[in-house]
């Protein structure tokens, strides 16, 4: 009786000491240190180009895929199978998936075609263009995130993986190149914008609540002087009741004339020799 | 054959697919500086110059007309007429073919040139508007009129230039009717007066024996309606400016006030007060039929039609405080649209139809403001000790109103002046008048 009391007492003391010692640790531990984020320093000049969002997503996905495939190359295929046991039932389906993966991996030409179409459509009816772009981009996003396809990609034998990685690599590289050469970098775009902001006298009499957006296509010389200007919705200029559009278009043309030569990048003439400026005064007129 | 096909195939797949998508840059900002415009003096030959000088006693009519135009453009706040001293090209040569480089050099973006002639006792004025930067003509017109009308020629040209460069109709060939005030505050003489929109050519329409108030233009012709006293009772009158004939509107057994024309000019809408209650009535000017529009024990007044004639805005104290309401023109579906603190009054529907201008009294200050016709988007344009009675320019872009200053017990230091402000709220200007002035009303364009 006495002994068991002592043992109980001893145990209790041990527990008390343990809690006293360990509690502060528990208390201290939850101090939330923000998770470390590794940062890669990249040369800005080539990469400040903020790409069309879906494209960026795509590239990120591609890089992820590459990483995934690398992992699966090194690791035994069993592991992969464990992760996705349902995904590999028969060789037929495998083939299908590869097909899917391939079609997923080489979407470039199609998308380009889409883009070209988009720009053409814009020319015809510029008013609807915004929504269309949004719709298309959402659609693309959905495609990219499709988990089945990623699963399919992961789920492959070595050879197939090697092949697809090669193709994907090639595609991503070429796409990367395209990315870099299409579009201006942020600083280049800012310089051009700032210049035109200064030249453009917004006609103050315009109503803010009308759909007034003037798109002008420019052909430029290497020194930034303008060879040709083309108003994309030119027909609207001389329609009755479109007086405000005409006024806005003329003010935009004046701004371009006044700003000549435009502040264009010193390099890469090929990529900006054709340039489209979208003049939109709504923001200014509302405020 | 197979080989060729194969070759074509190879060529096709090896052709570099590098294609550049068109770079788009969104320009969403610009400067809000007024457009620099060069108004070259109107040129003329020596013969018509001396003839005009003889007839009008004006030394250089060409530059006088260009001054009228310049002054108009400057007051609009949308244009910046450049100093003539900087002009490099002579007016007559510029009118034939401008050297655009010279005009671009002085930073002109638009150029106005013109020519005056006297042909068969008639003044012929032609003008051209040039886009300096594009190097092309934008507009070319000619007018013929009696020489005495030369100021109006200047206004009409301004209207054309304004319309071509802003996309909306001008408001320069217009007149303003107002109450000219003279004498000490306690013994004020009030006369009806009319002048050009730029303050010239003032004419007095009444002698000042009776008190006159709230003159309003008929939007379709040169008739005004106003409030005057008849047998010590305030009554609504109409006056034909061209013939000078005036008459009392309707035979109401009480006081009528706050008159205004309907957009088609065929009806007068006004308040009629009897036994301490005032409601809104209309009277058809052709068949003299009177219609009662509101029927409410509160004070309903200051009615104003929407430009399509389908709605009426007015102010009423039916909620306890004076606020602005909108109803259908038959008096149905009344809806309160102003909900801010203080009192709201004198609502006036914009000729463009999108806004209602009003006076607001809040914490002892008077504001002139605008709101959308559903009451949203209220913007106060200007604040002062005392100001009221907004009236729209015919294009719905500028508002004219009047201000009174604080005065002592004996009325000393009291003054009443006309002011204009545009919808941006920045371009506020004193409208110069020969005497003190109040209750302005803007006419529609005379040339239309």
Description of the structure:
The complex is a heterodimer of chains A (287) and B (448). Chain A has 287 residues and is mainly alpha-helical. Chain A folds into two domains: 53-172, no CATH class; 186-286, Fusion Protein Consisting Of Minor Coat Protein, Glycine Rich Linker, Tola, And A His Tag, Chain: A, Domain 2 (2-Layer Sandwich), CATH 3.30.1150.10. In chain A, 64% of the residues lie in helices and 7% in strands. Chain A contains 14 helices and three strands. Chain A has helices spanning 2-28, 44-47, 53-74, 77-83, 91-105, 108-124, 129-145, 147-154, 158-181, 186-199, 234-237, 243-259, 269-272, 282-286, and strands at residues 213-220, 226-231, 274-280. A three-stranded antiparallel β-sheet of chain A has the order 2-1-3. In chain A, strand 1 (213-220) and strand 2 (226-231) form a beta hairpin. In chain A, helix 3 runs antiparallel to helix 9 (158-181), helix 5 packs parallel to helix 9 (158-181) and helix 10 (186-199) packs across helix 12 (243-259). The longest helix of chain A is centred in the N-terminal third of the chain and has 27 residues, at 2-28. Chain A starts with a helix and ends with a helix. The model of chain A is unreliable at 44-52, 71-91, 94-145 and 161-181 (pLDDT under 50). Chain B has 448 residues and is of the alpha+beta class. Chain B has two domains: 35-166, TolB, N-terminal domain (Rossmann fold, 3-Layer(aba) Sandwich), CATH 3.40.50; 175-442, TolB, C-terminal domain (Neuraminidase), CATH 2.120.10. Chain B has helices at residues 2-14, 46-56, 61-76, 91-96, 100-105, 150-166; strands at residues 23-27, 35-39, 79-81, 110-119, 122-131, 136-145, 175-182, 189-196, 203-204, 212-217, 223-230, 233-240, 246-248, 255-261, 267-274, 277-284, 290-292, 300-305, 311-316, 323-328, 335-336, 343-349, 355-362, 365-372, 379-384, 387-392, 398-404, 416-422, 428-431, 436-442. In chain B, the strands form seven sheets. A five-stranded mixed β-sheet of chain B has the order 3-2-4-5-6. Chain B is globular, with a radius of gyration of 28 Å. The A-B interface holds A 108-109, 112, 115-116, 119, 174, 177-178, 181-184, 189, 192-193, 196-207, 209, 217, 243-248, 250, 252-255, 257-258, 270-272, 274-284 and B 17-35, 77-78, 109, 131, 133-134, 163, 165-168, 354, 397, 424.
């Amino acid at each position: 009786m006495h002994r068991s009391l002592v043992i109980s007492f001893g145990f209790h003391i041990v527990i008390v000491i343990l809690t006293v010692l360990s509690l502060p640790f528990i208390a201290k531990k939850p101090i939330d240190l923000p998770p470390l984020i590794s940062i890669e320093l990249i040369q800005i000049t080539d990469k400040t180009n903020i790409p069309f969002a879906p494209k960026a997503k795509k590239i990120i996905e591609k890089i992820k895929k590459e990483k995934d495939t690398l992992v699966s190359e090194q690791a035994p295929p069993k592991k992969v199978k464990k992760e996705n046991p349902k995904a590999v039932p028969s060789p037929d389906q495998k083939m299908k998936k590869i097909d899917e993966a391939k079609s997923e991996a080489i979407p470039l030409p199609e998308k380009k075609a889409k883009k070209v179409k988009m720009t053409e459509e814009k020319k015809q009816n510029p008013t609807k263009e915004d929504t269309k772009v949004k719709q298309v981009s959402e659609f693309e996003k959905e495609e990219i995130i499709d988990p089945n396809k990623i699963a399919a990609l992961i789920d492959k034998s070595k050879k197939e993986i090697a092949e697809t990685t090669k193709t994907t690599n090639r595609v991503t590289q070429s796409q990367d190149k395209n990315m870099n050469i299409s579009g201006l970098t942020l600083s280049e775009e800012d310089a051009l914008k700032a210049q035109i902001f200064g030249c453009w006298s917004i006609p103050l009499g315009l109503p803010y609540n009308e759909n007034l957006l003037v798109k002008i296509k420019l052909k430029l010389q290497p020194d930034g002087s303008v060879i040709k200007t083309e108003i994309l919705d030119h027909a609207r200029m001389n329609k009755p009741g479109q007086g405000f559009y005409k006024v806005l278009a003329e003010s935009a043309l004046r701004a371009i004339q006044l700003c000549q030569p435009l502040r264009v990048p010193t390099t890469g003439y090929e990529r900006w020799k054709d340039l489209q400026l979208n003049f939109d005064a709504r923001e200014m007129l509302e405020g | 054959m197979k080989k060729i096909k194969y070759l074509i195939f190879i060529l096709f797949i090896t052709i570099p697919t590098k294609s550049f998508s068109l770079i788009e840059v969104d320009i969403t900002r610009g400067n809000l500086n007024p457009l620099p415009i060069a108004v070259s003096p109107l040129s003329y030959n020596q013969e018509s110059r001396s003839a005009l000088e003889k007839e009008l006693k004006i030394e250089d009519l060409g530059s006088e007309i260009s001054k009228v135009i310049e002054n108009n453009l400057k007051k609009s706040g949308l244009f910046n007429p450049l100093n003539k001293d900087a002009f490099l090209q002579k007016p007559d040569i510029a009118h034939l073919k401008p050297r655009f480089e010279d005009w671009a050099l002085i930073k002109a973006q638009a150029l106005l040139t013109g020519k005056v002639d006297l042909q068969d006792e008639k003044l012929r004025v032609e003008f051209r508007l040039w886009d300096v930067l594009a190097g092309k003509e934008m507009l070319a017109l000619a007018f013929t009129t009696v020489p005495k009308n030369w100021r109006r020629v200047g206004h009409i040209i301004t209207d054309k230039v304004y319309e071509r460069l802003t996309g909306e109709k001008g408001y320069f060939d217009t007149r303003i009717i107002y109450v000219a005030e003279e004498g000490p505050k306690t013994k004020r003489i009030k006369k009806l007066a009319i002048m050009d929109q730029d303050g010239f050519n003032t004419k007095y329409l009444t002698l000042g024996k009776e008190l006159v108030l709230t003159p309003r233009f008929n939007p379709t012709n040169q008739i005004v309606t106003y409030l005057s006293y008849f047998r010590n009772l305030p009554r609504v009158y109409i006056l034909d400016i061209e013939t000078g004939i005036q008459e009392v509107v309707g035979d109401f057994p009480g006081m009528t006030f706050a008159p205004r024309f309907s957009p088609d000019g065929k009806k007068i809408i006004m308040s009629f007060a009897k036994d301490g209650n005032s409601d809104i009535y209309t009277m058809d000017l052709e068949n003299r039929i009177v219609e009662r529009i509101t029927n409410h024990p509160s004070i309903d007044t200051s009615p104003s039609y929407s430009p399509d004639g389908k709605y009426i805005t007015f102010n009423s104290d039916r909620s306890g405080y004076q606020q602005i309401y909108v109803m259908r023109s038959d008096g149905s579906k009344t809806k309160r649209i102003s909900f801010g603190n203080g009192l709201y009054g004198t609502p006036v529907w914009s000729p463009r139809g999108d806004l209602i201008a009003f006076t607001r009294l809040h914490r002892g200050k008077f504001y002139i403001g605008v709101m959308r016709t559903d009451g949203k988007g209220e913007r106060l344009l200007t604040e002062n000790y005392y100001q009221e009675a907004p009236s729209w320019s015919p294009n719905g872009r500028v508002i004219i109103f009047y201000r009174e200053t604080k005065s002592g017990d004996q009325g000393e230091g009291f003054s009443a002046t006309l002011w204009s402000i545009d919808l941006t709220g920045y371009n506020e200007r004193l409208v110069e008048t020969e005497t003190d002035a109040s209750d302005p009303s803007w006419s529609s364009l005379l040339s239309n």
